[in-house]
Amino acid sequence: MLSRNIKIGSLLLFALGLSLNLAAQNPIVQTYYTADPAPMVHNGKVYLYTSHDEDVTVKNFFTMNDWRCYSSSDMVNWTDHGAILSYKTFSWSRGDAWAGQCIYRNGKFYYYLPVNKINGGNAIGVAVSDSPTGPFKDALGKPLLEGYGYIDPTVFIDTDGQAYLYWGNPDLWHVKLNADMVSYDQKTGIVKETLKDENFGYREKKINNRTAAYEEGPWLFKRKAKYYMLYPAGGVPEHLAYSTADSPLGPWKYGDTIMHVIKNKGAFTNHPGYIEFKGQPYLFYHDAGLPGGTGFKRSVCVEPFQFNADGSIPLITPTKEGVVKSAANVNPYQRVEAETIAWSEGLKTDQNDKGAVWVTKIDGGDYIKVRSVDFNKGAKFFDASVASANSDGKIEIRVGSKTGKLLGVLQVKSTGGAENWKLQSCKVANLKGVHDLYLVFVGSGNNLFDFDWWTFRK
Ligand code: FUB
């Protein structure tokens, strides 16, 4: 009887584990290591800017060369826009593409980024673009700000049009940006915050006369006439905390911890980003949750949450499930980029200098999950834009899970080589309603083909 119970228990646990895995939504990006999330809502879409930990860590330290961008209309499927700029965008930089933030003003996107200068020393540059996904160019040809500890800029435009930039580790500084967004008010100049415990939290591990828990990575926003500053705190390993103020210039009043140090698969850093999208607040952060994850191979995650009635932020628990409820459905009757992914295994994306991005490194057994696809018109055909030198790969079109109902199989024929894109089609069993779609790749060997976009036809 006991062994039977254990067996049933194990089966239940297995089933639960399986369904938890099926429901995994964090980390958001599985194709690259991403860190330092900087979300931005623009024209009904979320743009998520991230820094990028390289797959190969050099000298056991942050190995970071470029910044990536992802977008989503539903908070569960993220379209990869590739690496949209690198430290090389700043001719005066020698590297270290750390945490930045992008903001929209008067038809342009201003992206504030910390790098190291060619001859050493921290600096913050500003890159500008006409589009949220680039191309970005150096707005000034020189740093906007430079000085020891000048990293992690956060930018905010108040309802009266005044813009503010805060930044720094181990100190916290701010300037009032001018309306051109690429210069700052010289009269008020660079202001250094007084990091007192009552303003920025109580530090348990005192180092170098530092008292307050504030560490780095500030994120400034306003909600209901209250200003919030989120930040990594405590020394390392970092937790996330917040302070509030009645003005964007403080005085800041310490609030509380909003995320404890992540115990399971945490990194020694963390980094907050905040948006409200379609009425729902979201906290972005990073952990080391992907296979191979470390403090130098981090991954961006997101959790929905609710403010308390008094405007305080509750303690937010990192989860695997992340965003459970999709904020919109995917329309499968228009072109859907193959790099629009809720979850994937085994894949990478690649890009060319014209801004095109596609899914690559496709091996047998890899798959893409796309959540909440609305087949309201039914479907007869599946079309995929693919490029391949081989003719050994297939795409199984399934719903519900990667072994779920098989709608059809596309045998990918050779197109003559890489970036030689051809539209190939197959018949699919008719289907109605909203489903999670699984594109499961089948074939022997590696690099079966590259995959640019797909659609369904009636
Ligand atoms: O990603 C490099 C650095 O680690 C960031 O600038 C900090 O905020 C921390 O996340």
Overview features:
six-stranded antiparallel sheet; mainly beta; five-stranded antiparallel sheet; 458 residues; binds beta-L-arabinofuranose; 45% strand
How many β strands by DSSP?
A: 35
Which structural category fits the helices and strands?
Answer: mainly beta
Helices, by number, come to 2
Form type: globular
Distance between the termini: 54 Å
Largest sheet: 6 strands, antiparallel
Q: What is the mean predicted local confidence, pLDDT?
A: 94
Radius of gyration (CA) equals 23 Å
Strand content: 35-45%
List low-pLDDT spans. Answer: 1-21
Enumerate the distinct ligands: beta-L-arabinofuranose
The helix content, as a percent range, equals under 10%
Give a concise summary.
The protein is mainly beta and 458 residues long. The protein is 5% helix and 45% strand. The protein has helices spanning 2-22, 197-200, and strands at residues 33-42, 45-53, 66-72, 78-86, 93-95, 101-105, 108-117, 122-129, 137-138, 145-146, 154-157, 163-167, 173-177, 191-192, 202-207, 210-212, 219-223, 226-233, 239-245, 253-259, 273-277, 280-287, 299-304, 336-337, 340-341, 343-345, 348-351, 357-360, 367-375, 381-387, 393-399, 405-412, 422-427, 433-442, 450-457.
